[in-house]
Target: Peptidase S1 domain-containing protein
Amino acid sequence: VLSLALLCYFPSATGGDSGPVSTWTQRCVLFLSQANLPRGWIIGGKEARSHSKPYMAFLNISTKHGHKRCGGFLIRKDFVLTAAHCDDKKIMVYLGAHDVTKREWSQQRLAVGQKIPHPKYNNKTQENDLMLLKLKRKAKLSTAVQLVPLPETGKEVMPRDVCNVAGWGNTRARGVSLPSTLREVDLKVLEADRCLRYPHFVPNSMLCVGDPKEVEKSSFQGDSGGPLVCEGTAQGIVSFGRKDGSPPRVFTRVSAYIPWIKKTMRKLQD
Model:
């Protein structure tokens, strides 16, 4: 059984939360999943154009075993949205990053002041798998750091829509190959019944993503928490899937949680 803690480790010798991860510069792509379902990583993708996705956040997460990585995305100057299963001891957020092994001119490395997982998150079924990160200081918007819009009421992503997923997660279904630079892949949204093989799939709050016919294209380990972006809007959050990385995989449906997200951010308004 795969432990949640195995989300894509890089050892503590890499220099702590804000240190480089140069030991792990192998090529890689998107996401991991739950105790018996691997989190997200990108398989079959390509390197993203530098700073073409300025909303992306790299999460360098301290654990009792060392470090792990997740993705996230900037939705307000002081808030990043990610997956609840990425929670651990301490999180450092890198904004404006392309190569996370370097101190790029564009990078802002910000500490997290408060972690707010959804109150009904279930770490066994992965229901309500989302978490807000309140940054200790606001991000400075630039060409490399921007917000991504959340869905408006009534504007749902539809089956057959093709959306984009990006991250710094594992690119191999077997073994570990972590990239230093941001990777991306285009994936198709499927009808909910295509994910009924997952016993805890909830259509109202989850999305089924990735065409099984395109087995070489998927998200997998290391980029859990990253966004599914459809026509410029963050519609999903990388959540879980099968251990072998094969599609389809499951994303948290962002539109189902807009009231909670807005209420929580208002409550913590500076």
